[in-house]
Amino acid sequence: MHRVTSGQKAFQLVNLSLLSLIALGMLLPFINVLAQSFSSSTAVTTGKVTFWPVEFTWINYQYVFSDASIWRSFAVTVYITVLGTLINLAATASMAYPVSRQEFAGRRYVVLLVLVTMVFSAPLIPNFILIKELGMMNSLWSLMIPGAISAFNFFVMRSFFMQIPGELIDSSRIDGCGETRILWNLVLPLSKPVMASLGIFYAVGHWNTFQSALYYINKPNLWPLQVKLRQMITTDDISIDPSASQFSDLAHSSPEGIKMAVIIIATVPIIMIYPFLQRHFVKGLMIGSVKA
């Protein structure tokens, strides 16, 4: 039985304390925003709120839930997150699988080309011209198609696919399976850990879409939630439904509580996904990092 030395115990204690402090430092701003979202406008504007709501109220969330523009932006964000993640995983798997097999003669050149994109990224203006010429301006496709394959995620998935025994794939070919059927019916079912891990990476990226939407989307009804939130924070543009007179004074006097409520709504859904995929997340990254 391995005996833990006093030095190892001290290291573990220091390591745990340091990581706990870092985690607390990341958590406290979120707690402050959450407390402000449940506080009255007076408490927020006077700076009385720290880590606990002052003059607890639901009025900020009632306003957000009654604002159709926020719900529309939320729906756009959910749409590009779900569909965009599916496109990412399908495209990355379709490219990583052939490159992971030894019988693919041109795999080294493909890997080299992908590696170049990690070192040299395309400038903004050529990207903008390309999106415009493809007719994707003011289209949600501009937020999903250009970044369909991430170079880093490609290498992680390729490394994972290389762990699958070649004999298993050869036996499938003997049974008459084509490459597409092998990928979708054999390889992907065995790749749930790496698919879950990369799915989180892709989903978080789509959920936080900001710059691409700012460059390529000019129609407010197609703005994702992050752009809508930015508009509210920078311009104090809080829309008011004329029929909701109980919110008019709140929106004009103190929009800060409303902004905090929108931040919480924009943050919590993607955080809630992680616990369900945590088991696959760590396993996928560990296995996918064995080979380069």
Automatic annotation (TrEMBL):
Q: What InterPro entries is this protein classified in?
A: MetI-like, MetI-like_sf
Q: What is its main location?
A: membrane
Protein's cellular compartments: Cell membrane
Q: Mind telling me which GO cellular component terms the entry cites?
A: plasma membrane
Pfam families reported in the protein's UniProt record: BPD_transp_1
The processes (GO biological process) annotated in the record are: transmembrane transport
User: Carries keyword Transport?
Assistant: yes
Whether Disulfide bond counts among this entry's keywords is no
Membrane topology of this protein: Multi-pass membrane protein
Instruction: List each copy of the ABC transmembrane type-1 domain by range.
Output: 74-277
Residues crossing the lipid bilayer are 12-31, 74-97, 109-131, 143-161, 182-204, 257-277
Q: Which UniProt keywords apply?
A: Cell membrane, Membrane, Transmembrane, Transmembrane helix, Transport
Family indicated by similarity: Belongs to the binding-protein-dependent transport system permease family.
Q: What is this protein called?
A: Carbohydrate ABC transporter permease
Question: What's the source species for this entry?
Answer: Paenibacillus aurantius
